[in-house]
Specification:
alpha/beta; Rossmann fold; Pantoate--beta-alanine Ligase, Chain: A,domain 2; globular; binds pantoate
């Protein structure tokens, strides 16, 4: 496995691979690599891509300094994990290389209005500006590629897709299914911060989603059930929403068909998110 930290070397590497006929599969990460990331590496590999993974804890997407400080960092095991899961090139740029102005604001920020303002965006102002800006930079350096994102961060994937459409990046965004532990908890780098008791409470998110996934209901009924499940488990709910799977606009009770249910809550001071498809039935059926 090749390791690169220099931005120009990374750009040259990706360009050289394309010149040799390879398709580049980009997997952006913030490290603390786990089975969810491994599934993205495998998806890229099974598409025949040259797998280029980036590890960069992007401070611009944290609106809370203590959240940034607590974010898990496991550089040694990241290298092993990448190596054993088919990564061809691991890019670990420095903060100075990515954001030379930090902690001052960069003059250029990418904002995806609408999708980026809702849900996570409403609770974490500036979060998606930070995500879109860093992803735009990763795309600009990597060049034409397929980029792999986990559906665990469903809104992030929608924001990136919108940005790619609007700014005409030569990038195919590939969404990959959520990877869950055997108990149903969606795998996330933040899970290591949960106590044993917190972890069992956190299961309410996946259980609530599994419950509403079982039978069609109106958007309001789905929301009520989700709220009730999270409330009963003692999860401090940040939001529950049933929304259009592309724009994430909130669904109303006149809609029918497949939508996305998204939930967020805080357990042990750890922010948890999860989502799943749900079916909307007609109001009086
Ligand atoms: O999902 C993440 O780990 C991050 O938000 C990403 C996509 C690597 C951007 O920093």
């Amino acid at each position: 496995m090749q390791r690169i930290s220099d931005l120009e070397a990374w750009r040259d590497y990706a360009h050289a691979q394309r010149t040799q006929g390879r398709h580049v599969g980009l997997v952006p990460t913030m490290g603390a690599l786990h089975q969810g990331h491994a599934s993205l590496f495998r998806a890229a590999r099974s598409n025949g891509d040259l797998v280029l993974a980036t590890v960069f804890v992007n401070p611009r997407q944290f609106n809370d300094a203590s959240d940034l400080a607590a974010y898990p960092r496991t550089p040694e095991s990241d290298v092993e994990m990448a190596e054993h899961n088919g990564v061809d090139c691991l890019v670990e740029p420095s903060l100075d290389a990515m954001w030379p102005d930090y902690p001052d604001a960069t003059p250029t920020t990418v904002s995806v209005r609408g999708i980026g303002d809702r849900l996570e965006g409403a609770g974490r102002p500036g979060h998606f500006d930070g995500v879109a800006s860093v992803i735009a930079k990763l795309f600009a350096i990597t060049g034409p590629c397929r980029a792999y994102f986990g559906e665990k961060d469903y809104q992030q994937m929608c924001v990136v897709r919108q940005m790619v459409r609007d700014l005409a990046f030569e990038v195919d965004v590939v969404g990959c299914p959520i990877v869950r532990d055997v108990d149903g908890l969606a795998i996330s780098s933040r899970n290591v911060l949960l106590s044993a008791e917190g972890r069992s409470r956190a299961l309410a998110l996946s259980r609530a989603l599994a419950l509403v996934g079982e039978q069609p209901a109106t958007a309001s009924e789905h929301r009520q059930r989700l709220e009730q499940c999270l409330g009963e488990a003692g999860v401090a709910t940040s939001y529950v929403e049933v929304a259009d799977p592309v724009t994430l606009a909130a669904s109303n009770d006149d809609e029918v068909g497949i939508r996305r249910a998204l939930v967020a809550g805080v357990v042990d001071n750890v922010r948890l998110i999860d989502n799943a498809p749900v079916t909307l039935r007609a109001r009086n059926s």
